[in-house]
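If you are new to this repository, start here. Below is one unmodified record pulled from the training split, so you can see the exact layout before writing a loader.
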Amino acid sequence: MTSHVGSWKVKTIDGADVRLRSGSVGLMDIDITAPVSGGELSVTEDAAHLSLRLDLGELRTNFLLQSTARKIVSRNDAQVLSYDGEGPSSDAPWHVTGHAKAGSVDVELSLALTPCGPAADPMAELDVKGSASLGTVHLPLPGMGTIDDFAFDVEGRFALSAR
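And here is the target side for that same chain:
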């Protein structure tokens, strides 16, 4: 949409979080929230591009998984998750595909980006949704162990400021 052509910075204020949530895995669901530590959205006549950084060192989950999740992040030197995705900008929501990388983990991730600010400034907020599959993973968590098809949903909503 040509009315959305421009460049915006993701505001990293309280509430600028991205949530990663799995379905049932073993005995429980995995539900992790990590704060956004930076990012940019640019939209041209041809393409939408999103870069996003999450601070995994500050991730939050339920009290049973918190310590284990932080140990996994530390052990894999995965303090920051970086995402870089691009897709066509013909119509919103924009669908961008890229890679989410943290330490040795590299996952292809497709996201739908929807401007959701007030009518006077729809680009004041961005809604982000997507999903990914990691295939077989080994989690050092009681009651989980090996998961054959570990998939998770991604959702976030955060403020943008024009650049």
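Two things worth knowing about this chain: The chain has a mean pLDDT of 81. Strands lie at 6-10, 17-25, 28-43, 47-55, 80-88, 94-102, 105-115, 125-139, 145-162.
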